Amino acid sequence: MALIEAMSETRLCNLALSRIGAATIQDVENPTTNEGRHCQRLYPHVRDSLLRSHWWRFATKRATLSQDTTDPDFEWNNQFDLPNDFLRMKELYDTENSYELEGLKLLTDDDTAEIKYIARITDPTKFDPLFAEVLVLKFAIALCMALGQARLLMQELEMELVSLLARVRVVDKQETSTIGRADRNAWVDEKS
User: Fold this and answer.
1) Domain count, the chain
2) Model confidence over 62-110: pLDDT tens digits?
3) How far apart are CA 192 and CA 46, in angstroms?
4) Is the pLDDT score of 161 beyond 60?
5) 135 closest CA partner among 62, 54, 60
6) How far is residue 177 from each of residues 59, 89, 174, measured CA to CA in Å?
7) Where do the H-state alpha helices sit in 20-120?
8) Are 87 and 99 in the same domain?
9) Per-position b or e across 135-164, b if 16+ CB within 10 A of its CB
């Protein structure tokens, strides 16, 4: 019985490289080839932009924020420190007040802040399988440009990505029940 290879950054890079017919790499952390150097440089950006582009359930976290001891200079009464792994705000709970994000701070007139947010998930073993599939396609597209692959190949991958994202939306909608509540988990269709 064959063992399934554990998901890793190197494996995801090699899946993307294979999609474009490029040579695979041994270790994304210690690149020895042009492909490896491009993977090391591009992978974190592509991963984070994809995480930020959608309200991925596997990357959703909740946090009670700590209030900063320094108040904002004007406009807002309080500011709170956002988590170190913060990528995107989903919701500020139990408030009717507005808020604003500035750098790694949440500014609001509230005295407390509980949030739901998208976190930077870096461990590939924690990725949802559909996220990993989308990541491989987006990364393959980025590598096409970096490695000078044929424009036609990149266009084919982009069309495949559009089709895959449509399927992801369907699955995503099936995994939430918002009966009697505002649709807090609606897909936000952004280009990243």
Assistant:
1) 2
2) 999 999 999 999 999 999 999 999 999 999 998 888 999 999 999 999 9
3) 9
4) yes
5) 54
6) 18, 20, 8
7) 34-52
8) yes
9) bbbbbbbbbbebeebeeeebeebeeebeeb
The token duo for 192 is 């990243």
For residue 4, tell me if it sits in a domain: no
Q: Residue 10, Cα to own-chain centre: how many angstroms?
A: 18
Chain-centre distance of CA 3, in angstroms?
Answer: 28
pTM: 0.85
Token pair belonging to 84: 């170190």
Phi, psi of 130 (to 5 degrees): -70, -35
In the sheet that 105-108 helps form, which strands lie side by side, from edge to edge? 66-67, 78-81, 105-108, 99-102
Phi, psi of 38 (to 5 degrees): -65, -40
Is position 190 within any domain?
A: no
| R_g over Cα of the chain | 20
Is position 189 within any domain? no
| Together in a domain, 167 and 72 | no
